[in-house]
Amino acid sequence: MGEGGEVVVVVREFEPVKDRIGVEDVERNCDAGSNGKISIFTDLLGDPICRVRHFPAFLMLVAEMVTDKEERKIVGLIRGCINTVTCGKKLSRNGKNGSNDSFKPIPVYSKLAYVLGLRVSPSHRRMGIGLKLVSRMEDWFREKGAEYSYMATDKDNEASVKLFTDRCGYAKFRTPCILVQPVFAHRVSITKGICIFPISPSDAESLYRRRFSTTEFFPSDIDSILYNRLNLGTFVAVPSDGFSDSWPGVDDFLSKPPESWSVLSIWNSKEVFTMEVRGASRTIRGLAKTSRMVDRAFPWLGIPSVPELFRPFGFHFLYGLGGEGPDAVRLTKALCDFAHNVAKERGCGLVVTEVSSREPLRVGIPHWKRLSCDEDLWFMKRLGEDYSDGSVGDWTKSPCGVSIFVDPREI
Ligand SMILES: CC(C)(COP(=O)(O)OP(=O)(O)OC[C@H]1O[C@@H](n2cnc3c(N)ncnc32)[C@H](O)[C@@H]1OP(=O)(O)O)[C@@H](O)C(=O)NCCC(=O)NCCS
């Protein structure tokens, strides 16, 4: 940069060919660990918009420093996307044959924007660039008719928490937990007496819409997730006792459901980006390697080995977890074990899911506490004046429900 010359920061739309290298530099600088601390490096596999591109509307902005000599350098970036999701429910008359004595809950939808991947180069922080990127992104959200905006961050990320709460008007909204299970070198055995059925995307769509569309954050375009090539399938678990060997189809299943059942879907995040743990000591890496070697040599011992996280690895994300009945927790555990084995076959390092802190099925989800996050902070802000949330009122003030639907495209 020209010394003493004028420098301006321009925020503009990301241009894939021109900006890719500059954006990767910013990502790398932000990921770099300091003082020998362990850090996680994310590789977006050459596609900086990969984390938002599966949404119906998305935008990536970059902040570029421009000197009076026309030297340019990308120093910040932000991604955003917009989708229509459930923000609450209302009762609707279920007027069969003109009767009006039965009511059923139906979803109330709202247009929700999501901010993610905000980064400012360490050398250019505290200059107002982060704030400028967020406010320009919010302008686009409003232009597109989004009613709310939200973002997720780690509770220890003081810079991010302060920026969004003190300066951008966001308030703490939900605190779901991220549950992370390592993929071992051995297959996990699935509890006996449980049938697991893969179901088609169209059956999965019907099941989700009929049973979970009033869950907070349920995406109105669930079909585009289920038919996406990254979706590896939807699976239903039932106790094998008294249930036929084959999937009866969604209509029959829901007209006469077993006393307990459970469902989940698997999303292949490994195709979107990879991660790598850097900065771990030689001792930690050595211990991890030994545990894997022993697990691989004696898989029947079922040793909970540490996967190869010190070179690029991918993960599967489990979403749409739900179920009913007294045995739903055990069935959820079986589905997670099944998903572990799918992840092992496909060479993943981790299986990840995110659920509400009050989710009753949470106890059935195997995870390692040290790799998981008890409190992922979600902040929310109301963006404008005209709302479709109607009976729900101000969503930002609504109490936390039992479950939330975490969209795999946001991960
Ligand atoms: C969070 C981040 C984007 C902030 O970018 P930035 O350009 O430095 O932020 P700004 O200069 O616009 O800061 C605006 C306000 O945010 C708050 N803030 C920013 N950094 C802060 C810090 N390190 N500590 C406390 N408050 C901070 C302050 O209120 C600040 O206003 P002030 O400087 O007038 O006090 C940047 O620190 C970053 O890239 N961090 C790593 C990636 C990340 O955590 N991203 C967010 C998660 S999506």
UniProtKB/TrEMBL annotation:
<feature type="domain" description="N-acetyltransferase">
    <location>
        <begin position="9"/>
        <end position="191"/>
    </location>
</feature>
<dbReference type="InterPro" id="IPR000182">
    <property type="entry name" value="GNAT_dom"/>
</dbReference>
<dbReference type="InterPro" id="IPR016181">
    <property type="entry name" value="Acyl_CoA_acyltransferase"/>
</dbReference>
<dbReference type="GO" id="GO:0016747">
    <property type="term" value="F:acyltransferase activity, transferring groups other than amino-acyl groups"/>
</dbReference>
<keyword id="KW-0012">Acyltransferase</keyword>
<protein>
    <recommendedName>
        <fullName>N-acetyltransferase domain-containing protein</fullName>
    </recommendedName>
</protein>
<dbReference type="Pfam" id="PF00583">
    <property type="entry name" value="Acetyltransf_1"/>
</dbReference>
<dbReference type="InterPro" id="IPR052810">
    <property type="entry name" value="Plant_NAT"/>
</dbReference>
<comment type="similarity">
    <text>Belongs to the acetyltransferase family.</text>
</comment>
<keyword id="KW-0808">Transferase</keyword>
